[in-house]
Every structure is written in structure tokens, then in C-alpha cells.
Amino acid sequence: MKIIILSQNENLYSTKRLVEEATGRGHEVRVIHTLRCYMNVASHKPSIHYKGEDLSDFDAVIPRIAASITFYGTAVLRQFEMMGVFPLNESVAISRSRDKLRALQLLSRKGIGLPVTGFARSPDDIEDLIQLAGGPPFVLKLLEGTQGIGVVLAESRSTAKSLLEAFLELDVNMMVQEYIKEAGGADIRCFVLGRKVVAAMKRQAKEGEFRSNIHRGGHAEYVRITPEERKTAVMAAQALGLNVAGVDILRSNRGPLVMGVNSSPGLKGIEKASGKNVAGMLIEFIEKNARPCRTHTKGIKE
Fold first, then answer.
1. Are strands 2-6 and 28-32 parallel, antiparallel or unpaired?
2. Is the pLDDT of residue 300 over 90?
């Protein structure tokens, strides 16, 4: 099988592991810089090119698209889909997951547990928005932020109001979310593949920090998840139409709450914490599912 990995850096752990597992199983693998791809959008014979080479003769594509290039990255992936190449995650599903507000709305429609979340655009509505979130402390999140960047804990109502007013003045979209105190600065990353959770880890924030992201200094360890957490993670991935997802769950007094869904989850932390060969599982999934023109929009119709 001929596999393309869309990645801006072939030296990243996740990219290297995917190449290692794919070549080890006898596949031909190419790492292609996403931004160097260019397209011919034709009615009868769409094509995609890279440094003068036609990339039509491939069986599957693994998108490792950075959040900062979502628009162009999903356009490139969509072109591969038009050519009948099997995508590990589809472009529509990735676009859903990258729009935090849209993702939460889709999860809400499915009845999946979420922290109380508010979103407004007018400074006149900030007071009511804060009221909806249930009282301080509040978590304020940039809609475009990733890896814990753009996430702020506001300890008081006045702080939350000042921050929201400032960001709205700068024309930046933020949402306000309830703070789940009982989670204790920890979340559960469930790695979903197909219709099951294949690995999980608990991420704990460092002392004095509430964000558990490993990029923010948090540490990860193996964790046993409950049947309810497992079901919630799978439902969240399916609601967005994702074959592969890192579903982040908070343990609350009212059950598991989905904090976010990552359509391009890293492999380093999850493999180290769980001791599982997740990269190998991804390649095996492609082997079982990759067929020409097997691309369709999955999940909730919008």
C-alpha cells in the first residue's frame, strides 16, 4: 500500500512513529509538507502536485494538519478525497473539530456531557453570559487556541468581565466555561480509533497550574477508564465524524464531561503512558479500511 502523511515536520515523534510502523509492515510511505501541495481543481480529473510531482497514485492519506493551517490543510485533504484516496480522518470532520464552538454544539445535540459554556459577541451581554456559567471561578477560552494556549482561569466575576470586554474590543472570539473544581487540575485523554478507545492516560497539571496539557508542563500516567467514560469518548468522536480522535474528558460530580476533541492527537504521551503501540494500530486500521473512493461525510448532518 502507498501511504502519504501530510505533515509540516517529518522529525516530529508522531510522524516518525507512523513512518516506522508503516514501513515495518511493508508499505511505501511519503511524508509530504502540507503547504507545498498545490491543486488542479478540474471537473473530470482533479489532481494534486508536490514539487512538480503528481500525487495521484496513492491509496491512503494520514492528515497531521496543524491548527494554524487548518483552512489550507483541509483543502489539500479534500482534494485527495476527490481523487478517491482514503483519508484516516476526513476533511469535514477535521473542520468540525477545529471550530470549538461548532464542535460543542454538535456534541450538545447528541446529549454528550459538557461543562456549561457560554458565548456572546456584544459587551452588553457579558453580565448575563457570566451568570449562565454559574459563578466564579470561570475558564475563558479563545476559540482558536490549541495546547492550552489562550485558556485563562478568572478567579472572580470582575476579572472575567474585564477580560471578556478586553478581548471583545480586540475582536477576538472567546467563550466562558464553568470551572470543574473536583477534577483537580486533571483530565483524561481517551484515544479513540474507529468505534473503541484503544488507549487512555490521565494528564495532571503541574503545581500552581490548572491546564493539564503536557505542553504546559503537565505529566501523564496510565489510567483505567470507566465504561461511561469509554462510551462518552466514542460518542464524541462519532458525533464529529472522526475515525481517530483524542477526546479530553473531565471527571465531574455529574459524570464525564467532554472538554475538547482533537482530530490530530499526538502519539508520544499516549504511547508512553499506556505502553501501547498506537501508531501500529493506526496503520492496521488503514489496512482494514482503505478502499478507493471510500470517503463520505459522516456524523451529524448540518
1. parallel
2. no
SS3 148: coil
The cell for 44 is 473530470
3-class secondary-structure state, position 52: coil
CA 66 from centroid of its chain's CA atoms? 10
Using one digit for the tens of pLDDT, what is the confidence trace for 196-216?
Answer: 999 999 988 766 555 555 555
301 pLDDT tier (thresholds 50, 70, 90)? very low
| Distance, CA of 48 to CA of 33 (rounded, Å) | 13
Residue 186, SS3 per DSSP:
strand
Half-sphere exposure of residue 138: CA atoms within 13 angstroms, side-chain side: 30
> Could you tell me the domains of the chain?
2-89 (3.40.50.20), 97-112+182-288 (3.30.470.20), 117-179 (3.30.1490.20)
| For helices 100-109 and 227-240, angle between their N-to-C axes, nearest 10 degrees | 120
